[in-house]
Amino acid sequence: MTNREMFDLLKAAGLTTEGVCGLMASFRAESDMNPKNLQNSGNKKLGMTDEEYTEAVDSGKYQNFVRDSIGYGYAQWTYWSRKEGLLRAARDNGSSIGDPMTQISYALQELAGYRDVIAILKTTSSVKEASDIVLKKYERPAVVCNYEDNPSAENKAALEAAMNTREQYGNEFLAMFSGDQGSKEEIELTEKQARQKIADIAVGWYGRKESNGSHKVIIDTYNSHKPLARGYAVQYTDAWCATYVSAVAIVAGWTDIIPTECGCGPMIQLFVNLGRWIENDAYVPSPGDVIFYDWEDGGNYAVTDNTGNPDHVGYVVSVNGNTIRVIEGNKGSGEVAYRDLQVNGRYIRGYGVPDYSRKANQAEAQGSTSGNTSGSTGSGTGSGSGGGICMTPQWVGEVTADVLNVRSWAGTEYPNIKSWPQLAEGNRVEVCDSVKASDGSTWYYVRIDGRIFGFVHSDYIMRLASSSGNTSSIKVGDIVQFTGNTHYTNSYAGATGKGCRPGKAKVTAINQDGAHPYHLVAVSGGGSNVYGWTNAADVKA
Fold first, then answer.
1. What's the whole-model pTM score?
2. pLDDT computed for residue 180 by the predictor
């Protein structure tokens, strides 16, 4: 975790800039910003490096973590009950005790119980005030206890030296974060890092609860963003799952790709309007995707598509094989907590898929549409920037098999998707990406009917050649003027057309053989809401 990432997470928790810098100063003084730091005397006593100690605790080989009275981690947790809490947090998260996110989340949970400390950190405009109270009331190292037991001149000098060091560190952090570092890092993000940024902010509120009022910072963050969705200010007693998703986007400053709403249904519609809604609940998500649930999903969920009213929403934070880990606000009795479920599992309504490529640097954004996936494997991902699956159509193919199964991932061991389980000979699809299955075969990630995504075996898709006589100068990536009022679900005659507004748009795919040859996506501020295939006559260079 970078210093900037830690700063953003602590700011998201409601601390002032000076409060964050004061707390980070303590972490630097205690562990030199190393989450796996073992107290030096512990290295010598146990004969272990920091890494060896961390691995031994994680694996269960070392059983005395809680009671060994050896400082560990960012805050050098030492007392048995505090180390027990850290260990429990790591186990609950399925993470290492040395995981930076786990430790920051745990520190925030602890601080919620130190009312005097957290009150200062959330209101102070003084780095010294913040670093001093963290030292004396939260961290409480030996120099503090020694002075309290014996306020001698020597002990006073040691305490003042510790205070001065932390103030200095805090001011260095303040200088670092008060400049233009944030905007520079934004520019240099890859898509994978952009997705992880959202996941990190979301996890930063882990453990916030309605029962103790710690969730209020989430509600306040949402209500601070204007204009409010539908003009409604969320109350502390309202359901707040969608509010939580929105608040994360607000903290990131990315409400252009993650629309703000306090209701699940309206939020889905906003993703639809952006052209970033995946109706297929068998879709394999990536970190940062927004997952919606419908608790009334039927028992035949494995072979049907859930199209009911959404009841709940959260952020995908990781995908391991077929297991999705989600973090949600207002989960269960009203807290920010994790949920694990399977790809294509019961209750999945669908996904909002923010366009994180817009937050990546230009080189990464261009790489996301290259289609080069020679290094992909069945357990990995495709050619999208940062390792994600590319969802932008690259070319058009035609099914050559009598019947072709559309699966939830690359490989015959995966089930057919529910919303479009099979294709017939002659059907046309838009090929977005390719992935290697576990047996080494190549599978295409395809879009069907302009809205459904799935995987098909590459042996049964024939690439269609474009018309050689076309002399249009328009190419993929161009910004064009869309003059029409209809966009289509696919490029072929007979496709379903829907109304839309004219304006500026980006060309994301071209099929010169199609009846509607240009796939356009509206650009921000261009006046249009087009997202689909359009007539050539309606596109002007």
1. 0.45
2. 37
- Local confidence band at 469 (pLDDT 50, 70, 90 cut-offs): very low
Higher-pLDDT residue of 70 and 445 is 70
What Cα–Cα distance (Å) separates residue 197 from each residue in 12, 181, 219, 340, 384?
A: 12, 15, 20, 20, 17
Per-residue model confidence (pLDDT) at position 371: 31
CA angle, 45 as apex, 44 and 46 as ends, to 5°? 95
Q: Name the CA dihedral angle for 479, 484, 485, 487, rounded to a multiple of 10 degrees.
A: -60
Q: What is the mean pLDDT of the chain?
A: 83
Q: What is the pLDDT of residue 121?
A: 94
Judge residue 217's burial from the number of C-beta atoms within 10 Å of its C-beta, 0-12 exposed, 13-18 middle, 19 or more buried.
middle
397 neighbors 429 (Cβ within 8 angstroms): yes
For residue 3, count CB atoms less than 10 angstroms from its CB and return exposed for 0-12, middle for 13-18, buried for 19 or more: middle
Output the pLDDT for position 189.
63
Residue 265 has what DSSP assignment?
H
Nearest by Cα to 166 from 6, 31, 305:
31
User: Is 189 in contact with 359 (CB distance < 8 Å)?
Assistant: yes
Scanning the structure block, which residue is given the tokens 């005659």?
493
Q: Which of 6-15, 59-68, 421-430 is least confident?
A: 6-15
- How far apart CA 42 and CA 26 sit, in angstroms, is 20
> Alpha helices, DSSP H only, in 62-190?
80-93, 100-112, 115-121, 127-133, 142-149, 153-177, 181-187
- Give the 3-state DSSP-derived string for 485-520, with helices as H, strands as E and coil as C: CEEECCCCCCCCEEECCCEEEEEEEECCCCCCCEEE
Q: Are 432 and 446 in contact (CB under 8 A)?
A: yes
Helices (H) and strands (E) in the chain, counts: 16, 20
- Residue 432: both structure tokens together: 């977005």
227 preceded by cis ω (within 30°)?
yes
The token pair that represents 471 in the structure block: 């002399």
Kindly report, residue by residue over 235-261, the tens digit of the pLDDT: 999 999 999 999 999 888 899 999 999
Q: Which amino acid, 421? A: P
d(CA 319, CA 367): 22
Tokens of 159: 């305490």
User: What are the tokens at 296?
Assistant: 């009334």
DSSP-derived secondary structure letter, 232? -
Q: Which residues contact 121 (CB under 8 A, 6 or more apart)?
A: 15, 16, 19, 20, 22, 23, 111, 130, 133, 134
Mean pLDDT, range 286-305, rounded to an integer: 86
Rounded to an integer, the average pLDDT of 84-103 is 85
Whether the per-residue pLDDT at 181 is higher than 60: the answer is no
Beta-sheet pairing, 335-342 with 323-331? antiparallel
Distance CA 536, CA 514 (A): 10
Q: Whole-angstrom Cα distance, residue 157 to residue 160?
A: 5
**In this structure, are residues 509 and 393 in contact, taking their beta carbons and an 8 Å threshold?**
yes
- CA–CA separation, 134 vs 117, rounded Å? 7
| pLDDT(488) > 90 | no
